[in-house]
Amino acid sequence: MRIQEVFRFALRGLRANKLRSGLTTLGILIGVGAVILLIAVGQGSGAAVQARIDSLGSNLLLVTHQTSAVGRAASTRGGTQSSTANLTPAIAQDLADSDQDPDVSVVAPVASTSVTATYDGASTTISQVVGSYPAYLPISNDVVSRGASFTADDVNHANKVVVIGQTVVTDLFGSIDPIGQTIQMNNVPYTVVGVLASKGGGSTFNDPDDVAIAPLTTVQDSLTGFGSLSEIAVQATNAGATGAAQAEVTNLLLDYLGETASTEQFTVTNEASLLSTAQSTTQTFTVLLAAVAAISLLVGGIGVTNIMLVTVTERTREIGIRKALGAPKSAILGQFLIEAVFLSVIGGALGVLVGVVGSRFTIDGIQPVLVPSSIALAFGVSAVIGLVFGSLPANRAAKLHPIEALRHE
After folding, report:
1. Distances in Å between the alpha carbon of 132 and those of 46, 64, 77, 92, 139?
2. pLDDT score for 129
3. Nearest C-alpha neighbor of 172 from the set 148, 150, 152, 190
4. How far, in Å, CA of 126 to CA of 122, rounded?
5. Which of 25, 118, 387, 399 makes a 20 to 30 Å CA pair with 151?
């Protein structure tokens, strides 16, 4: 029997049960689409995390106060907290002036809080209000796109000026030019002198554009008080010197605070190590998503087997007649394999289309990143599923004895 006739019989069998064929194709479609889309979501999540950390600067170190039980015990004398337990501008200045940290480029003390900001009836909550020195902006990769940054003179005189991010501009001003306007932050007037370039952000992760940066003395005077700093930002001379700078800063702080490694009350965080951890976590997350999607694809394959077994049972007499008329075993086997593979390939092609289209939309603040290899893998697996899961019903049909098949009711 010619191969064209085998294909013709296979297609005729599929057309005879359009609804059943459509539902089987739908199962494969969902599985393939899920694999492509979930891998894209995993990659998009990883890209968002990496962009967020990159926006902080890969050669950035953050010194934060440690509040562990050991740290609290070491910082308490006679029931009162020792002054050495606090991070202060003096400590930041000591790090900046020291000649024992050659791999440190810039140091900036940071006091941060969140506030409610208002302007002309509009209101928003700014999640991160940073009080620091002008050097903080290049350390944190913040660029003023309009207006200007505040100056050292603004810090010395505690001038109430502020540089705001794009999210704050949108929430408070809309299309109005914010430069020179006065906003109220916790009912304290601040004059907007600059607008930061957008870093991008989403609802799933902290929005890096929801920020306001002002002179340290101003923020401490009107918003946070003159207590301990939130952190000290330290920039290494380059990305390759981050590890050395971290060790130098740690040693200097131990000497300055008169502590040992076992009683240290601070943590020096390397943002580059955070990036590495985030990348590893994202990879694991993507694999888990792909595994979940693969299960749905496997279920679709089981559906192919089930439907083809039903088809073979329903067409037993037809198979008997064809074999009695001389159809070889290979023709029967080929017919049902072609039906199974055809269903899987069509479902796979439609699933690829659904996955590609779905990746164009933002999902919970994440912009999926399409991975071309996932398309080829998912489509290839769908074809293999048709071949593998269609083999059992096809073999069963090919092994039917003509006499027994003709007797089947």
Report:
1. 30, 15, 30, 11, 11
2. 94
3. 190
4. 13
5. 118
Other CB atoms within 10 Å distance of the CB of residue 282? 19
189 φ/ψ angles, rounded to the nearest 5 degrees: -75, 130
Q: In angstroms, rounded to a whole number, what is the distance separating the alpha carbons of residues 152 and 108?
A: 12
pTM of the entire structure? 0.59
List beta partners, residue 236. Answer: 104
Which one, of 49, 126, 105, 68, lies nearest residue 239 by Cα?
A: 105
Residue 269 has pLDDT above 90, yes or no: no
Across residues 114-128, what is the average pLDDT?
Answer: 93
Residue 151: exposed, middle, or buried by beta-carbon count in 10 A (0-12, 13-18, 19+)?
A: middle
Residue 127, both tokens? 């999640």
- Give the pLDDT confidence of 17-57 residue by residue, as tens digits: 777 778 888 888 888 888 888 888 888 877 776 666 666 55
How many residues are recorded in the chain?
A: 409
Q: Whose CA is closest to 134, among 225, 37, 233, 48?
A: 233
Separation between Cα atoms, residue 348 and residue 409, nearest integer Å: 35
Confidence of residue 244 (pLDDT cuts 50, 70, 90): confident
Instruction: Give yes or no for residue 81 having a pLDDT over 50.
Output: no
Six-digit token string for 274? 């955070």
Copy the structure tokens of residue 6: 């085998």
Measured torsion, CA atoms of residues 31, 32, 38, 40, in degrees rounded to the nearest 10: 180
User: In this predicted model, what pLDDT tens digit does every residue of 189-206 receive, in sequence order?
Assistant: 999 999 999 886 554 446
Beta bridge partners of 113: 129
What tokens were used for 292? Answer: 């979940």
Quickly list DSSP for 87-113: --HHHHHHHHH-SS-TTEEEEEEEEEE
Q: How far is CA 19 from the centre of its chain?
A: 39
Using alpha carbons, select from 59, 143, 147 the residue that is nearest to residue 107: 59
Residue 121 buriedness (CB in 10 A; 0-12 / 13-18 / 19+): exposed
**What token pair was written down for 348?**
């796979």
Q: Say what the pLDDT of residue 5 is.
A: 62
Q: Tokens 């930041």 label which residue?
A: 92
Pinpoint the alpha helices (H) of 226-270: 242-257
